[in-house]
Amino acid sequence: MSLFREGDLEFDFRKATSSRRFDDESHGLTHCMCAVDFIVELPDRILFVEAKDPQNPSARPAAIQNFIGELESGSLIQKKLVPKCRDSYLYELSMGRLGKPVYYIVLVVLSALTKADLAHQSDLLNKYIPVEGPPENHWKDRFIQDSMIMDLEAWGKHFPRFPVRRLSELPNSETH
Questions:
Q1: How many CB atoms lie within 10 A of CB 15?
Q2: Pick from 39, 155, 52: nearest CA to 102
């Protein structure tokens, strides 16, 4: 199955080489490792995809403010997003499944964030992973080629072959 539901969002990865949900019980290490939502293989790279949707219509009213607070304090990146990336990479490397460059993509559905906010958060994510390695002695081989935090509009531009749609906005006959 290449259609995946994450809360109120549906990701269509049917045009990928392969795709799978990773943030579930299947990897057997939920007690000690964090996991990205999806791992998507393309002909020339692997995408680690994490979805954050504080605007989910069924979310509690305080969810947006909590999310913004985590974002502004840096705890979202440092305590949630970075561990998901690192642990997923370590797991996939140990399983022998990383023969291509890896890119970490975080989709954030929150209209209150501006393009400048997203760019700033992407810079912080790259710093804390760290994508380039130590400041004075960069990695010779990056374990993550790049990471980016983006909104739905940027997702559509970067990944037009992999549409994302909000299920609650569809007629009932179209939801899976």
A1: 13
A2: 39
